[in-house]
Amino acid sequence: MLDTDKITKLRKAPVPPALHLIDGKARAASDDATLPVISPLDGRELTTMARGTASDGEAAIAAARAAFDDGRWSGLAPSARKKILLKWADLIEAHALELAVLGVRNNGTEIGMALKAEPLSAAATIRYYAEAIDKIYGEIAPTAPGTLGLVHREPVGVVGVIVPWNFPLMIGAWKLGPALAAGNTVVLKPAETASLTLRRIADLALEAGIPAGVFNVVLGEGAVVGEAISLSMAVDVIVFTGSGPVGRRLMENAAKSNLKRVYLELGGKSPNIVFADAPDLDEAVKVSANGIFRNSGQVCIAGSRLLVQREIHDAFVQKLQAFSEKMVVGDPLDPATQAGAINSARQLEQNLSFVEQARSGGRQVIGGQRLLEETGGYFMQPTIVTGVEASDPLAQREVFGPVLAVIPFDTEAEAIAIANGTDYGLAAAVWTRDLSRAHRMIAAIRAGVVHVNTYGGSDLSVPLGGVKQSGNGHDKSLHAFDKYLDLKTAWIKL
Ligand code: NAD
Protein backbone atom coordinates (compact mmCIF):
# COMPACT_ATOMS: atom_id res chain seq x y z
CA MET A 1 0.00 0.00 0.00
CA LEU A 2 1.39 3.40 -0.94
CA ASP A 3 1.67 5.96 1.86
CA THR A 4 -0.20 8.88 0.28
CA ASP A 5 0.57 11.32 3.13
CA LYS A 6 4.25 10.71 2.68
CA ILE A 7 3.94 11.08 -1.08
CA THR A 8 2.16 14.43 -0.60
CA LYS A 9 5.02 15.65 1.59
CA LEU A 10 7.74 14.33 -0.72
CA ARG A 11 6.18 15.87 -3.82
CA LYS A 12 6.67 19.33 -2.33
CA ALA A 13 10.18 18.76 -0.97
CA PRO A 14 12.70 21.16 -2.48
CA VAL A 15 15.21 19.44 -4.77
CA PRO A 16 18.78 20.72 -4.43
CA PRO A 17 20.79 21.35 -7.61
CA ALA A 18 22.42 18.15 -8.85
CA LEU A 19 26.21 18.09 -9.21
CA HIS A 20 28.58 15.54 -10.73
CA LEU A 21 30.17 12.91 -8.52
CA ILE A 22 33.81 12.62 -9.48
CA ASP A 23 36.37 10.76 -7.39
CA GLY A 24 34.00 10.72 -4.43
CA LYS A 25 33.34 14.48 -4.51
CA ALA A 26 30.34 16.51 -5.62
CA ARG A 27 31.48 18.94 -8.32
CA ALA A 28 29.92 21.67 -10.42
CA ALA A 29 30.64 21.79 -14.14
CA SER A 30 34.17 23.02 -14.94
CA ASP A 31 32.64 26.24 -16.31
CA ASP A 32 29.88 26.33 -13.65
CA ALA A 33 27.19 25.95 -16.32
CA THR A 34 23.88 24.36 -15.36
CA LEU A 35 20.84 22.96 -17.13
CA PRO A 36 17.26 23.44 -15.91
CA VAL A 37 15.51 20.24 -14.84
CA ILE A 38 11.91 20.55 -16.02
CA SER A 39 9.26 18.42 -14.34
CA PRO A 40 6.86 16.80 -16.84
CA LEU A 41 4.15 16.99 -14.17
CA ASP A 42 3.73 20.76 -14.56
CA GLY A 43 6.34 21.97 -17.06
CA ARG A 44 8.09 23.93 -14.31
CA GLU A 45 11.71 23.98 -13.22
CA LEU A 46 12.25 21.40 -10.50
CA THR A 47 15.91 22.21 -9.95
CA THR A 48 19.09 22.55 -11.98
CA MET A 49 21.89 20.17 -12.76
CA ALA A 50 25.50 20.53 -13.76
CA ARG A 51 25.90 20.88 -17.52
CA GLY A 52 28.94 18.68 -17.95
CA THR A 53 31.79 19.68 -20.21
CA ALA A 54 34.09 17.31 -22.07
CA SER A 55 36.74 18.01 -19.45
CA ASP A 56 34.29 16.96 -16.68
CA GLY A 57 33.84 13.68 -18.56
CA GLU A 58 37.61 13.29 -18.85
CA ALA A 59 38.10 14.01 -15.12
CA ALA A 60 35.58 11.30 -14.24
CA ILE A 61 37.23 8.84 -16.62
CA ALA A 62 40.67 9.63 -15.13
CA ALA A 63 39.29 9.00 -11.63
CA ALA A 64 37.75 5.70 -12.72
CA ARG A 65 40.95 4.66 -14.49
CA ALA A 66 43.10 5.40 -11.42
CA ALA A 67 40.64 3.58 -9.17
CA PHE A 68 40.74 0.55 -11.42
CA ASP A 69 44.48 0.49 -11.93
CA ASP A 70 45.39 0.72 -8.24
CA GLY A 71 43.10 -2.21 -7.39
CA ARG A 72 41.19 -0.45 -4.61
CA TRP A 73 38.05 -2.24 -5.77
CA SER A 74 39.09 -5.06 -8.13
CA GLY A 75 41.72 -6.09 -5.56
CA LEU A 76 39.10 -6.79 -2.89
CA ALA A 77 37.92 -10.34 -2.36
CA PRO A 78 34.62 -10.87 -4.21
CA SER A 79 33.01 -11.57 -0.84
CA ALA A 80 34.17 -8.14 0.39
CA ARG A 81 32.68 -6.38 -2.65
CA LYS A 82 29.52 -8.37 -2.10
CA LYS A 83 29.21 -7.11 1.48
CA ILE A 84 29.47 -3.47 0.39
CA LEU A 85 27.06 -3.91 -2.52
CA LEU A 86 24.50 -5.58 -0.27
CA LYS A 87 24.70 -2.59 2.04
CA TRP A 88 24.16 -0.31 -0.93
CA ALA A 89 21.07 -2.29 -1.97
CA ASP A 90 19.73 -2.01 1.60
CA LEU A 91 20.23 1.77 1.56
CA ILE A 92 18.41 2.09 -1.76
CA GLU A 93 15.53 0.06 -0.38
CA ALA A 94 15.44 2.12 2.82
CA HIS A 95 15.07 5.26 0.66
CA ALA A 96 12.71 3.64 -1.84
CA LEU A 97 9.70 5.95 -1.57
CA GLU A 98 11.85 9.09 -1.50
CA LEU A 99 13.69 7.87 -4.62
CA ALA A 100 10.47 6.85 -6.36
CA VAL A 101 8.79 10.23 -5.82
CA LEU A 102 11.92 12.11 -6.89
CA GLY A 103 12.06 9.93 -10.00
CA VAL A 104 8.39 10.56 -10.83
CA ARG A 105 8.84 14.31 -10.46
CA ASN A 106 11.78 14.03 -12.83
CA ASN A 107 10.46 11.61 -15.49
CA GLY A 108 6.67 11.23 -15.07
CA THR A 109 6.19 7.47 -14.57
CA GLU A 110 3.12 6.56 -12.48
CA ILE A 111 4.13 6.06 -8.83
CA GLY A 112 2.92 2.48 -8.31
CA MET A 113 4.98 1.29 -11.25
CA ALA A 114 7.90 3.60 -10.41
CA LEU A 115 8.26 2.30 -6.86
CA LYS A 116 8.41 -1.34 -7.97
CA ALA A 117 10.29 -0.89 -11.21
CA GLU A 118 12.77 1.70 -10.03
CA PRO A 119 14.28 1.69 -6.49
CA LEU A 120 12.93 -1.70 -5.47
CA SER A 121 13.99 -3.36 -8.69
CA ALA A 122 17.38 -1.61 -8.58
CA ALA A 123 17.98 -2.87 -5.02
CA ALA A 124 16.99 -6.41 -6.04
CA THR A 125 19.29 -6.27 -9.08
CA ILE A 126 22.30 -5.06 -7.11
CA ARG A 127 21.66 -7.80 -4.54
CA TYR A 128 21.40 -10.46 -7.26
CA TYR A 129 24.82 -9.63 -8.73
CA ALA A 130 26.40 -9.09 -5.31
CA GLU A 131 25.21 -12.53 -4.24
CA ALA A 132 26.46 -14.10 -7.47
CA ILE A 133 29.96 -12.70 -7.64
CA ASP A 134 31.56 -14.99 -5.04
CA LYS A 135 30.13 -18.04 -6.81
CA ILE A 136 31.85 -17.53 -10.15
CA TYR A 137 34.77 -19.84 -10.84
CA GLY A 138 37.50 -20.02 -13.46
CA GLU A 139 38.16 -23.20 -15.45
CA ILE A 140 40.86 -25.76 -16.02
CA ALA A 141 40.88 -26.69 -19.69
CA PRO A 142 41.07 -30.39 -20.69
CA THR A 143 44.57 -30.09 -22.24
CA ALA A 144 47.24 -32.77 -22.81
CA PRO A 145 49.15 -34.24 -19.84
CA GLY A 146 52.16 -32.12 -18.97
CA THR A 147 50.31 -28.87 -19.68
CA LEU A 148 47.87 -26.78 -17.74
CA GLY A 149 45.44 -24.37 -19.40
CA LEU A 150 43.82 -22.06 -16.86
CA VAL A 151 40.91 -19.81 -17.77
CA HIS A 152 40.58 -16.83 -15.45
CA ARG A 153 37.73 -14.34 -15.44
CA GLU A 154 38.87 -10.84 -14.70
CA PRO A 155 37.18 -7.42 -14.74
CA VAL A 156 37.39 -5.55 -18.04
CA GLY A 157 38.42 -2.19 -16.53
CA VAL A 158 36.62 1.15 -16.88
CA VAL A 159 33.00 0.82 -17.96
CA GLY A 160 31.09 3.75 -19.47
CA VAL A 161 27.39 3.41 -18.65
CA ILE A 162 24.96 5.54 -20.70
CA VAL A 163 21.26 5.16 -19.99
CA PRO A 164 17.89 6.61 -21.10
CA TRP A 165 15.15 8.34 -19.16
CA ASN A 166 12.28 5.87 -19.04
CA PHE A 167 13.46 3.62 -16.18
CA PRO A 168 16.77 5.13 -15.08
CA LEU A 169 17.25 3.17 -11.85
CA MET A 170 16.10 -0.19 -13.19
CA ILE A 171 18.14 0.01 -16.40
CA GLY A 172 21.04 1.67 -14.59
CA ALA A 173 21.15 -1.15 -12.02
CA TRP A 174 21.07 -3.83 -14.75
CA LYS A 175 24.46 -2.44 -15.76
CA LEU A 176 25.90 -1.04 -12.53
CA GLY A 177 25.14 -4.23 -10.56
CA PRO A 178 27.18 -6.70 -12.63
CA ALA A 179 29.82 -4.11 -13.65
CA LEU A 180 30.64 -3.18 -10.05
CA ALA A 181 30.23 -6.68 -8.62
CA ALA A 182 32.78 -7.91 -11.18
CA GLY A 183 35.33 -5.37 -9.89
CA ASN A 184 35.18 -2.77 -12.65
CA THR A 185 35.02 0.98 -12.14
CA VAL A 186 32.30 3.07 -13.73
CA VAL A 187 31.58 6.43 -15.31
CA LEU A 188 27.82 6.85 -15.56
CA LYS A 189 26.02 9.36 -17.75
CA PRO A 190 22.30 9.48 -17.02
CA ALA A 191 19.79 10.97 -19.46
CA GLU A 192 19.31 14.74 -19.35
CA THR A 193 15.66 14.35 -18.34
CA ALA A 194 16.11 11.64 -15.67
CA SER A 195 19.37 12.15 -13.80
CA LEU A 196 18.26 12.89 -10.26
CA THR A 197 17.66 9.41 -8.84
CA LEU A 198 20.80 7.90 -10.34
CA ARG A 199 22.79 10.79 -8.92
CA ARG A 200 21.17 10.20 -5.51
CA ILE A 201 22.00 6.48 -5.41
CA ALA A 202 25.63 7.33 -6.16
CA ASP A 203 25.73 9.14 -2.80
CA LEU A 204 24.23 6.04 -1.20
CA ALA A 205 26.99 3.96 -2.84
CA LEU A 206 29.63 6.09 -1.12
CA GLU A 207 27.74 5.77 2.14
CA ALA A 208 27.73 1.98 1.73
CA GLY A 209 31.51 1.98 1.39
CA ILE A 210 32.17 1.83 -2.37
CA PRO A 211 35.54 3.60 -2.53
CA ALA A 212 35.85 7.07 -4.07
CA GLY A 213 36.59 6.96 -7.80
CA VAL A 214 34.94 3.56 -8.34
CA PHE A 215 31.51 4.93 -9.28
CA ASN A 216 31.49 8.36 -10.92
CA VAL A 217 28.52 10.23 -12.33
CA VAL A 218 28.76 12.99 -14.94
CA LEU A 219 25.60 14.95 -15.67
CA GLY A 220 24.78 16.84 -18.83
CA GLU A 221 24.18 16.38 -22.52
CA GLY A 222 24.83 13.24 -24.50
CA ALA A 223 26.40 15.17 -27.33
CA VAL A 224 29.06 16.50 -24.94
CA VAL A 225 29.58 14.13 -22.02
CA GLY A 226 28.52 10.99 -23.90
CA GLU A 227 30.89 11.90 -26.72
CA ALA A 228 33.76 12.33 -24.26
CA ILE A 229 33.10 8.83 -22.90
CA SER A 230 32.73 7.16 -26.28
CA LEU A 231 35.86 8.82 -27.72
CA SER A 232 38.00 8.17 -24.65
CA MET A 233 41.12 6.04 -24.92
CA ALA A 234 40.79 5.10 -21.24
CA VAL A 235 37.30 3.55 -21.31
CA ASP A 236 37.35 -0.20 -22.01
CA VAL A 237 33.66 -0.93 -22.51
CA ILE A 238 30.49 1.05 -23.12
CA VAL A 239 27.14 -0.34 -22.11
CA PHE A 240 24.28 1.66 -23.54
CA THR A 241 20.52 1.66 -23.52
CA GLY A 242 18.84 4.20 -25.75
CA SER A 243 18.01 5.02 -29.33
CA GLY A 244 19.45 3.52 -32.50
CA PRO A 245 21.11 6.67 -33.87
CA VAL A 246 23.04 7.20 -30.63
CA GLY A 247 24.00 3.51 -30.54
CA ARG A 248 25.39 3.85 -34.06
CA ARG A 249 27.35 6.94 -33.03
CA LEU A 250 28.90 5.07 -30.08
CA MET A 251 30.12 2.34 -32.41
CA GLU A 252 31.61 4.93 -34.79
CA ASN A 253 33.40 6.63 -31.89
CA ALA A 254 34.71 3.30 -30.59
CA ALA A 255 36.12 2.63 -34.05
CA LYS A 256 37.68 6.10 -34.13
CA SER A 257 39.30 5.73 -30.71
CA ASN A 258 40.43 2.57 -28.92
CA LEU A 259 38.04 -0.06 -30.32
CA LYS A 260 36.33 -0.28 -26.95
CA ARG A 261 33.59 -2.86 -26.85
CA VAL A 262 30.12 -1.41 -27.26
CA TYR A 263 27.02 -3.23 -26.02
CA LEU A 264 23.71 -1.79 -27.15
CA GLU A 265 20.12 -2.15 -25.97
CA LEU A 266 18.10 -0.13 -28.47
CA GLY A 267 14.55 0.52 -29.49
CA GLY A 268 11.76 -1.67 -30.77
CA LYS A 269 8.54 -1.83 -32.77
CA SER A 270 7.36 -4.96 -31.09
CA PRO A 271 4.52 -6.98 -32.66
CA ASN A 272 1.76 -8.23 -30.38
CA ILE A 273 -0.04 -10.88 -32.47
CA VAL A 274 -3.55 -11.97 -31.56
CA PHE A 275 -4.97 -15.02 -33.34
CA ALA A 276 -8.69 -15.68 -33.40
CA ASP A 277 -8.09 -18.73 -31.17
CA ALA A 278 -6.56 -16.67 -28.33
CA PRO A 279 -7.55 -18.41 -25.09
CA ASP A 280 -9.23 -15.37 -23.49
CA LEU A 281 -9.89 -12.28 -25.61
CA ASP A 282 -10.78 -10.06 -22.64
CA GLU A 283 -7.47 -10.92 -21.01
CA ALA A 284 -5.68 -10.30 -24.32
CA VAL A 285 -7.35 -6.85 -24.56
CA LYS A 286 -6.38 -5.87 -21.02
CA VAL A 287 -2.79 -7.08 -21.25
CA SER A 288 -2.31 -5.61 -24.74
CA ALA A 289 -3.59 -2.20 -23.59
CA ASN A 290 -1.32 -2.22 -20.56
CA GLY A 291 1.56 -3.43 -22.76
CA ILE A 292 1.44 -0.20 -24.76
CA PHE A 293 -0.22 2.39 -22.52
CA ARG A 294 1.39 1.93 -19.07
CA ASN A 295 4.15 4.47 -18.47
CA SER A 296 2.56 6.19 -21.48
CA GLY A 297 4.23 3.79 -23.89
CA GLN A 298 7.71 4.81 -22.76
CA VAL A 299 8.82 1.23 -22.47
CA CYS A 300 11.44 -0.30 -24.76
CA ILE A 301 9.52 -3.55 -25.19
CA ALA A 302 6.11 -1.84 -25.57
CA GLY A 303 3.81 -3.84 -27.85
CA SER A 304 3.39 -0.94 -30.25
CA ARG A 305 2.15 -2.94 -33.25
CA LEU A 306 -1.02 -4.93 -32.66
CA LEU A 307 -1.53 -7.58 -35.34
CA VAL A 308 -5.08 -8.95 -35.12
CA GLN A 309 -6.52 -11.80 -37.15
CA ARG A 310 -9.14 -10.33 -39.43
CA GLU A 311 -12.14 -12.31 -38.17
CA ILE A 312 -11.80 -10.83 -34.65
CA HIS A 313 -10.32 -7.47 -35.68
CA ASP A 314 -13.39 -5.25 -35.25
CA ALA A 315 -14.57 -6.82 -32.01
CA PHE A 316 -11.06 -6.69 -30.56
CA VAL A 317 -10.56 -3.02 -31.45
CA GLN A 318 -13.93 -2.16 -29.92
CA LYS A 319 -13.02 -3.83 -26.63
CA LEU A 320 -9.60 -2.22 -26.69
CA GLN A 321 -11.14 1.21 -27.20
CA ALA A 322 -13.55 0.65 -24.32
CA PHE A 323 -10.69 -0.45 -22.06
CA SER A 324 -8.29 2.34 -22.98
CA GLU A 325 -10.95 5.06 -22.67
CA LYS A 326 -11.34 4.02 -19.04
CA MET A 327 -7.64 4.22 -18.27
CA VAL A 328 -6.79 6.95 -15.77
CA VAL A 329 -4.25 9.33 -17.28
CA GLY A 330 -2.85 12.17 -15.23
CA ASP A 331 -0.98 13.03 -12.05
CA PRO A 332 1.56 10.22 -11.75
CA LEU A 333 1.85 10.79 -7.99
CA ASP A 334 -1.79 9.79 -7.53
CA PRO A 335 -1.74 6.02 -6.90
CA ALA A 336 -4.95 5.61 -8.94
CA THR A 337 -3.25 6.84 -12.11
CA GLN A 338 -2.56 4.19 -14.74
CA ALA A 339 -0.62 6.30 -17.24
CA GLY A 340 1.47 9.23 -16.04
CA ALA A 341 3.25 12.00 -17.90
CA ILE A 342 5.18 12.02 -21.13
CA ASN A 343 8.80 12.65 -20.19
CA SER A 344 9.37 15.94 -22.02
CA ALA A 345 7.70 18.55 -24.19
CA ARG A 346 9.84 17.32 -27.08
CA GLN A 347 8.68 13.72 -26.70
CA LEU A 348 5.04 14.83 -26.46
CA GLU A 349 5.40 16.84 -29.66
CA GLN A 350 6.97 13.87 -31.40
CA ASN A 351 4.13 11.56 -30.30
CA LEU A 352 1.49 14.02 -31.53
CA SER A 353 3.22 14.47 -34.85
CA PHE A 354 3.23 10.69 -35.48
CA VAL A 355 -0.52 10.71 -34.85
CA GLU A 356 -1.06 13.71 -37.12
CA GLN A 357 0.91 12.08 -39.91
CA ALA A 358 -1.21 8.90 -39.60
CA ARG A 359 -4.44 10.94 -39.57
CA SER A 360 -3.48 12.92 -42.62
CA GLY A 361 -2.52 9.68 -44.36
CA GLY A 362 -6.14 8.52 -43.96
CA ARG A 363 -5.76 6.23 -40.94
CA GLN A 364 -8.45 6.20 -38.24
CA VAL A 365 -7.36 7.64 -34.92
CA ILE A 366 -9.00 6.90 -31.57
CA GLY A 367 -7.71 9.34 -28.92
CA GLY A 368 -4.59 11.14 -30.08
CA GLN A 369 -5.02 14.35 -28.08
CA ARG A 370 -2.92 16.12 -25.51
CA LEU A 371 -4.60 16.06 -22.10
CA LEU A 372 -4.59 18.34 -19.03
CA GLU A 373 -2.78 21.13 -20.85
CA GLU A 374 -3.96 23.57 -18.16
CA THR A 375 -1.64 21.87 -15.64
CA GLY A 376 1.39 22.73 -17.76
CA GLY A 377 2.26 19.02 -17.65
CA TYR A 378 2.80 16.68 -20.60
CA PHE A 379 -0.09 14.22 -20.81
CA MET A 380 -1.57 12.33 -23.73
CA GLN A 381 -4.55 10.11 -24.39
CA PRO A 382 -3.95 6.41 -24.97
CA THR A 383 -4.16 6.33 -28.76
CA ILE A 384 -5.25 3.56 -31.11
CA VAL A 385 -4.67 3.94 -34.85
CA THR A 386 -6.46 1.47 -37.11
CA GLY A 387 -6.19 0.71 -40.83
CA VAL A 388 -2.42 0.91 -40.56
CA GLU A 389 -0.39 -0.60 -43.42
CA ALA A 390 2.71 -2.59 -42.51
CA SER A 391 4.84 -0.10 -44.45
CA ASP A 392 3.43 3.04 -42.74
CA PRO A 393 5.88 5.13 -40.68
CA LEU A 394 3.71 4.30 -37.66
CA ALA A 395 4.33 0.59 -38.27
CA GLN A 396 8.04 0.99 -38.97
CA ARG A 397 9.35 3.67 -36.62
CA GLU A 398 9.47 3.69 -32.85
CA VAL A 399 7.20 6.37 -31.32
CA PHE A 400 8.06 5.70 -27.66
CA GLY A 401 4.68 7.02 -26.60
CA PRO A 402 1.09 5.80 -25.98
CA VAL A 403 0.33 5.16 -29.65
CA LEU A 404 -0.76 1.74 -30.88
CA ALA A 405 -0.73 0.80 -34.58
CA VAL A 406 -3.33 -1.86 -35.41
CA ILE A 407 -2.74 -4.06 -38.47
CA PRO A 408 -5.10 -6.85 -39.58
CA PHE A 409 -3.80 -10.16 -40.96
CA ASP A 410 -5.30 -13.38 -42.34
CA THR A 411 -2.78 -16.20 -42.08
CA GLU A 412 0.05 -17.28 -39.80
CA ALA A 413 2.56 -16.77 -42.62
CA GLU A 414 1.31 -13.22 -43.17
CA ALA A 415 1.58 -12.46 -39.44
CA ILE A 416 5.19 -13.67 -39.41
CA ALA A 417 6.09 -11.60 -42.47
CA ILE A 418 4.58 -8.43 -40.94
CA ALA A 419 6.11 -9.15 -37.51
CA ASN A 420 9.59 -9.52 -39.02
CA GLY A 421 9.17 -6.64 -41.48
CA THR A 422 10.93 -3.91 -39.52
CA ASP A 423 14.55 -3.09 -38.64
CA TYR A 424 13.85 -3.97 -35.02
CA GLY A 425 13.85 -7.24 -33.09
CA LEU A 426 13.32 -6.58 -29.40
CA ALA A 427 10.10 -8.23 -28.18
CA ALA A 428 6.95 -9.90 -29.50
CA ALA A 429 3.87 -11.73 -28.26
CA VAL A 430 1.60 -14.40 -29.67
CA TRP A 431 -1.90 -15.10 -28.38
CA THR A 432 -3.16 -18.55 -29.38
CA ARG A 433 -4.61 -21.72 -27.90
CA ASP A 434 -2.64 -23.84 -30.36
CA LEU A 435 0.58 -25.06 -28.74
CA SER A 436 2.18 -26.08 -32.03
CA ARG A 437 1.44 -22.69 -33.54
CA ALA A 438 2.93 -20.98 -30.47
CA HIS A 439 6.18 -22.91 -30.93
CA ARG A 440 6.25 -22.24 -34.67
CA MET A 441 5.85 -18.53 -33.98
CA ILE A 442 8.57 -18.51 -31.28
CA ALA A 443 10.95 -20.04 -33.82
CA ALA A 444 9.91 -17.78 -36.72
CA ILE A 445 9.83 -14.37 -35.05
CA ARG A 446 13.13 -12.55 -34.95
CA ALA A 447 13.08 -10.97 -31.49
CA GLY A 448 14.99 -11.18 -28.23
CA VAL A 449 11.87 -12.30 -26.36
CA VAL A 450 8.61 -13.85 -27.57
CA HIS A 451 5.79 -13.87 -25.03
CA VAL A 452 2.98 -16.39 -25.34
CA ASN A 453 -0.52 -15.55 -24.07
CA THR A 454 0.83 -12.62 -22.10
CA TYR A 455 2.85 -9.48 -22.68
CA GLY A 456 5.86 -8.20 -20.77
CA GLY A 457 6.39 -10.75 -18.01
CA SER A 458 9.98 -11.00 -16.88
CA ASP A 459 12.32 -11.88 -14.08
CA LEU A 460 15.85 -10.88 -13.17
CA SER A 461 16.97 -14.43 -13.92
CA VAL A 462 15.87 -14.11 -17.57
CA PRO A 463 18.14 -12.21 -20.02
CA LEU A 464 16.84 -9.22 -21.98
CA GLY A 465 18.37 -8.18 -25.28
CA GLY A 466 17.46 -7.53 -28.89
CA VAL A 467 18.41 -8.77 -32.33
CA LYS A 468 18.70 -6.87 -35.64
CA GLN A 469 18.80 -3.12 -34.95
CA SER A 470 17.41 -3.54 -31.43
CA GLY A 471 20.89 -4.21 -30.14
CA ASN A 472 23.47 -6.75 -29.10
CA GLY A 473 24.39 -8.21 -25.72
CA HIS A 474 22.03 -8.89 -22.85
CA ASP A 475 21.13 -7.27 -19.57
CA LYS A 476 19.88 -9.31 -16.60
CA SER A 477 20.64 -12.90 -15.55
CA LEU A 478 24.13 -14.32 -15.01
CA HIS A 479 24.77 -13.93 -18.77
CA ALA A 480 25.17 -10.17 -18.16
CA PHE A 481 28.52 -10.89 -16.50
CA ASP A 482 29.96 -11.78 -19.93
CA LYS A 483 30.11 -8.05 -20.72
CA TYR A 484 31.99 -7.18 -17.54
CA LEU A 485 34.32 -10.16 -17.05
CA ASP A 486 37.02 -10.92 -19.58
CA LEU A 487 38.53 -14.33 -20.19
CA LYS A 488 42.26 -14.51 -19.59
CA THR A 489 44.14 -17.74 -20.11
CA ALA A 490 47.35 -18.95 -18.56
CA TRP A 491 49.30 -21.72 -20.31
CA ILE A 492 51.69 -23.61 -18.07
CA LYS A 493 54.18 -26.32 -19.06
CA LEU A 494 54.38 -28.68 -16.13
P1 NAD B 1 18.71 8.52 -26.45
O1 NAD B 1 19.47 7.58 -27.32
O2 NAD B 1 18.33 9.83 -26.98
O3 NAD B 1 19.56 8.80 -25.13
C1 NAD B 1 20.07 7.77 -24.35
C2 NAD B 1 21.30 8.27 -23.63
O4 NAD B 1 22.30 8.56 -24.58
C3 NAD B 1 21.07 9.56 -22.84
O5 NAD B 1 21.78 9.49 -21.64
C4 NAD B 1 21.66 10.60 -23.76
O6 NAD B 1 22.12 11.74 -23.08
C5 NAD B 1 22.83 9.84 -24.35
N1 NAD B 1 23.35 10.40 -25.61
C6 NAD B 1 22.71 11.19 -26.51
N2 NAD B 1 23.56 11.52 -27.51
C7 NAD B 1 24.74 10.91 -27.25
C8 NAD B 1 26.00 10.86 -27.91
N3 NAD B 1 26.24 11.51 -29.05
N4 NAD B 1 26.98 10.13 -27.35
C9 NAD B 1 26.78 9.45 -26.20
N5 NAD B 1 25.62 9.49 -25.52
C10 NAD B 1 24.60 10.20 -26.03
O7 NAD B 1 17.47 7.69 -25.91
P2 NAD B 1 16.31 8.21 -24.92
O8 NAD B 1 15.44 9.13 -25.68
O9 NAD B 1 16.90 8.65 -23.63
O10 NAD B 1 15.55 6.83 -24.63
C11 NAD B 1 14.61 6.30 -25.47
C12 NAD B 1 15.23 5.20 -26.31
O11 NAD B 1 15.79 4.19 -25.47
C13 NAD B 1 14.19 4.49 -27.13
O12 NAD B 1 14.70 4.23 -28.41
C14 NAD B 1 13.97 3.18 -26.37
O13 NAD B 1 13.47 2.12 -27.11
C15 NAD B 1 15.35 2.90 -25.88
N6 NAD B 1 15.31 1.95 -24.77
C16 NAD B 1 15.74 0.66 -24.98
C17 NAD B 1 15.70 -0.28 -23.96
C18 NAD B 1 16.19 -1.70 -24.16
O14 NAD B 1 16.40 -2.42 -23.18
N7 NAD B 1 16.38 -2.15 -25.38
C19 NAD B 1 15.21 0.10 -22.71
C20 NAD B 1 14.75 1.42 -22.54
C21 NAD B 1 14.82 2.33 -23.57
Number of E strands: 21
Q: So how many helices?
A: 16
* Biggest beta-sheet profile: 7 strands, mixed
Low-confidence stretches: none
Q: Going across the major beta sheet, what is the strand order? A: 14-17-18-13-12-19-20
What share of the residues lie within helices? 40-55%
Q: What are the key terms here?
A:
binds nicotinamide-adenine-dinucleotide, single chain, 21 strands, 7-stranded mixed sheet, alpha/beta, 40% helix, globular, 494 residues, 5-stranded parallel sheet
Q: Can you characterise this structure?
A:
With 494 residues, the chain is of the alpha/beta class. 40% of the residues lie in helices and 20% in strands. The protein has helices at 4-12, 54-69, 78-94, 96-107, 111-133, 168-181, 196-208, 222-231, 244-256, 281-293, 310-325, 345-360, 393-396, 412-419, 435-444, 481-484; strands at 20-22, 25-27, 34-38, 45-50, 139-141, 147-155, 158-162, 185-189, 215-217, 237-241, 261-265, 271-274, 305-309, 364-366, 370-371, 379-380, 383-386, 403-409, 427-431, 449-452, 485-493. The strands form 6 sheets. The protein has a 7-stranded mixed beta sheet with strand order 14-17-18-13-12-19-20, sandwiched between helices. Strands 9-8-7-10-11 form a 5-stranded parallel beta sheet, sandwiched between helices. Strands 5-6-21 form a 3-stranded antiparallel beta sheet. A hairpin with a 2-residue loop joins β1 (20-22) and β2 (25-27). α1 (4-12) packs across α4 (96-107) and α3 (78-94) packs across α7. 52% of the residues are buried. Nicotinamide-adenine-dinucleotide (NAD) binds next to α8 and α9.
